Task: structure prediction
Amino acid sequence: MWNDLLTLIWIIIKIVLVIVPLLVAVAYLTYAERRVIGFIQGRFGPNRVGIWGLGQPIADAVKLFLKEPIYPARSSLLLFLLAPILSMAPALVVWAVIPFAEGWVVANINAGLLYILAMTSLGVYGILIAGWASNSKYAFFGAMRSAAQVVSYEIAMGFALIAVLMTAGSTNLQDIVLHQQGGVLHWYWLPLFPVFVVYWISGMAETNRLPFDMAEGESEIVAGFHVEYSSMGFAMFFLAEYANMILISALAALFFFGGWLSPFEGIPLLGSLFGWVPGVVWFLAKVFFFLLLFIWIRGTLPRYRYDQIMQLGWKILIPVTIVWIILIGLAIEFRMPPWFV
Amino acid sequence: MLLQQVVFYFFAISLIFSASMVIFSRNPVTSALFLVYSFFNSAILWMMLNAEFLSLVLIFVYVGAVMTLFLFVVMMLNIDTETLRKGFIKHAVLAVGVVIVVLVLMMMAIWTGNLAGLPDIQAPANYSNTHALGNELYTHYVYAFELSAMLLLVAIISAISLSHHKPKRKTQNISSQVDAKPKDRVHLINMSSEKKV
Result:
C-alpha cells in the first residue's frame, strides 16, 4: 500500500517537473517571438518591463487574469467554456511520453508514437467547438478553415511518422532515439530528408502558425475561432498554440535529429571533449533551434491562400511521403548501410 | 485488481451514459460530441485489455479524423430538429418492436455464449500489441487484409468520381492565373486630351 502511494507521489512529482518548466517556456516563447520578430523587422519589440523586457510575459499574464470574461449572447455557454480546455489538454498530455534524456520520461510506453498521433489529433476539437459555440460568423469561418486544414495535414504528418517508425523498427520514442546512435550522419534527417521537410511543413500547418494561420487570419476574419474570447479563455488558446509549437520542435529533435544524443559523437577529439555534457542539454538546444526556426519562418513568409494550402497538402506532401515510404521499404529489404542494417 | 475493476466500471458506465446521450440530446452537435466521448471511453476499455494499438488507432482514426469531418458537416448543415421530431408517436410502435427483437437476440447470445467461461488471459511482460497484430495481419490474414484495402480504395475513387460529376464547377485555373500577362488584363487606350474651352 505504502509502495503504491510512493509510486503515485513520484509520478506526480515527475508530472510537475515536466509541466511547470513547460509553462514557463511557453510564457517566454511568446516574449522571444515578439523580440525576434522585432529584430527581423528592424524594431525593438517589448523592452519596457524589467531588464530587456524580461518581465513582459508576467505583465501579460496579470493583465489577462484581471480582464473581464465576456460571454457572447445566444452561445452554448458550456461548450464555449469547454473549448479552451479541450485545446489546452491535448497539448499538455502528449508530454507524458517525451523523453528528455535516456530514462527521463514520465511514461515509457511501447506505443509512444501512436499515442502522440492520437493525442495531437484531438487538438482540433478545441478550435471547432470554439468556433461553433461562439455563435459568430467569423469564429465559425475560422473553425471550418482550421478543421479542414488540420485534418488534411494530419495525413501527411502520419505518413511522415510511419517512415520514421519503419526506419527505427519501433514505436517507442526512446528506442527511436537510441537507434540513431553513432553521430550526426546516423541521425534520421539524412536518410529521411524529404520526410523531415514534409513533417516540418505539416507541423507548422497543424499548429496553425504562419504561413498556414488560416484559422486566425487577422486581416481576413479578424482573429478567426477565438474572436469572441477574452481574458483567460483567450490566454488558454495562446498557451495551447505555443505548447504545440514546443511539442512539434521536440518531436522534430527526437525523430530526425537524435534527441538527447551529442552531435559530436564519433568525432575523435570533439567527441571526448564534449562527452561530459548531459544529454538533456543537447535535447534542449535542438528544441531551441527549431523554435527559432518557427519564429524565423513567421517573420519571413506571407500567409498562403486557402486553396494553395489544400493543393500543397494533398497533391505534393502526401505523394512525397508515400513514395519515400516505398523507398524505405526497399532499403530495409536490401539492408542498406548504415541506417537499415 | 480492485483498482482495475473500479476503473473498468467507471468508464463502462460513462460509455453507456454518453452513448445514450447521443440519442437523447436535442442538438445534433452535442450528439456528435457525445459520440466522440463514447469513442474515448471505449478506447480506454480497450487499453485495459492490453490492446494499445487498437485503442490508440480508434482515437486517431475515429476521433481525430472521422468525427472531425462528421462534426464539420453537422455544424454546416444546421439541421432543423423540429421536422425530424414529427411523427415520433406514429413510428414509436415500430421502433419499440425493433428494440425488443434486438434485445432478445443479444440476451440469447449472451446466455448461450457462456462468456463467463472465457479464460482470463494474462499477457507476458514484453507483450507488444502492435507487433502481435502486425504478425497476424500480414501472415494469416494477408488476403483478407489486401482485399479490404482494395475495397476501401474503390470506395475512395468512386466517392471522388461522384463529387466530380457535376458539369460546371467554379474552380480556379491556377496555370492560367500564373500565365496572365499585364496586357491581357489592362487595356491602355490612347485618348486625345480634352479641348480647353
User: Anything to note?
Assistant: The first helix of chain A runs from residue 2 to 40. The interface with chain B takes residues 76, 79, 109-111, 114-115, 117-119, 121-122, 124-125, 128-129, 132, 140, 143-144, 147-148, 150-151, 154, 158, 171, 307, 311 of chain A (CB under 8 Å). Chain A has a mean pLDDT of 86. The two ends of chain A are 46 Å apart (CA to CA).
